[in-house]
Amino acid sequence: xxxxxxxxxxxxxxxxxxxxxxxxxxxxxxxxxxxxxxxxxxxxxxxxxxxxxxxxxxxxxxxxxxxxxxxxxxxxxxxxxxxxxxxxxxxxxxxxxxxxxxxxxxxxxxxxxxxxxxxxxxxxxxxxxxxxxxxxxxxxxxxxxxxxxxxxxxxxxxxxxxxxxxxxxxxxxxxxxxxxxxxxxxxxxxxxxxxxxxxxxxxxxxxxxxxxxxxxxxxxxxxxxxxxxxxxxxxxxxxxxxxxxxxxxxxxxxxxxxxxxxxxxxxxxxxxxxxxxxxxxxxxxxxxxxxxxxxxxxxxxxxxxxxxxxxxxxxxxxxxxxxxxxxxxxxxxxxxxxxxxxxxxxxxxxxxxxxxxxxxxxxxxxxxxxxxxxxxxxxxxxxxxxxxxxxxxxxxxxxxx
Length: 401
Hints:
Blueprint: H1 4-12, E1 20-23, E2 37-38, E3 48-49, E4 53-56, E5 66-74, E6 88-92, E7 104-107, E8 111-114, E9 119-122, E10 132-133, E11 144-146, H2 154-162, E12 168-171, E13 175-181, E14 185-186, E15 197-198, H3 201-211, E16 215-222, H4 226-239, E17 242-246, H5 256-264, E18 266-271, E19 274-275, E20 279-285, E21 288-293, H6 297-315, E22 325-330, E23 334-335, E24 342-352, E25 355-360, H7 369-374, E26 377-381, E27 386-387, E28 392-397
Parallel strand pairs: 5-6, 13-16, 13-17, 14-15, 17-21, 19-24, 22-25
Antiparallel strand pairs: 1-12, 2-11, 3-10, 4-6, 4-7, 5-9, 8-9, 18-20, 20-21, 22-28, 23-27, 24-25, 24-26, 26-28
Helix pairs in contact: 1-6, 3-6, 4-5
């Protein structure tokens, strides 16, 4: 068996960042900026009101309550038609530009209309700049909005749209093909015959790929037939940036994936010192990284988390490849037996009293997917007898970047 860190290095070192592309803001969600993004204009572009109310001269409200003449109305999207003079006010709606002469806005709740709206009583003094959003208050023209290497989140996309930026340069999102193999697999709701199982791995792995920020490509479910497996993997390596296979990478007589990949490319077959997910394969087929994940459903997903996800993140340009480890206290015992491996126990974590605590999410068999569905973390248990209640363990928080 080889240490996990050695296996991770062997994979990551061969998965280089992808080229950059220019894409619309919506397509850039989750991608890394490949160049600095500059504001080409100020945001807001003009002084505008943050409230519904009246645009006034601050000095006119000094002796409030005072009565002012209403000389116009401004809605958002309208341009002022005149200036606000002494003793005057303009009815104004949120987002509308401040008319010339006005230097403050009094909110409508602090006013009282007279003569059907021709006059208004300002019932409080408002200082200069009251409820006015100044031009460039959010961003000034020429400002560096985003540095290279920034992960674009929904608010970033909104900023890009607000600046009128139609395309942004990002590290290209990888296309990752996923194929399941095995004669025992069934796809769909039809009744199972004895010995058959439903193909859950492909769906789980495609979901993990998408959650990681890559584009998942369904390469289908393939029987244990070398020609069919070869065709599916070839289709993936020709059209995708990486391929994940599930099943057939162990030492059994019917592990056809191993036989096929050995003929197709330069593969490394590893027994990694972890549980679950000990059998693992990685190599290049026609220059495309291929990850051979184990067939047991939990093993497949844990293998993705520990070995494939960090490599995909490197392809997407991330500097931090692994989820950060945090320390947690075992709220109940986490048992295991010595076997020379690191165990990754499925746990439920919560943050209480200034720290993390964990407890088992259920059965720890490599076939028990329901406990992984119930888990939101993996507790890292070094070789030994596990953790007693109150012991401190390292925790990987799943679904947390």
